[in-house]
Predict the structure.
Amino acid sequence: MSNADPAASLSPRRQRLSSFENSYAVALQRQRQTGVSQFILRTANPLQPFRTTSRAPRIQEYIVALVA
């Protein structure tokens, strides 16, 4: 079994989709559509390092940006 970093072996498309830039674009779009502030969170999951949500962060998630 390999101890390689799973994020390092992602396809270019997957890397782009899991980037901060993509999360920010999603947060902007969701905020414009709903009028609700969006958090961009850093997660502990290497396959999904950023997540966009309107809910407060959970354990092991840290606010990276707030789109208000």
Observations:
- The mean pLDDT is 90.
- Residues 34-68 form one domain.
- The chain is about 30% helix and 20% strand.
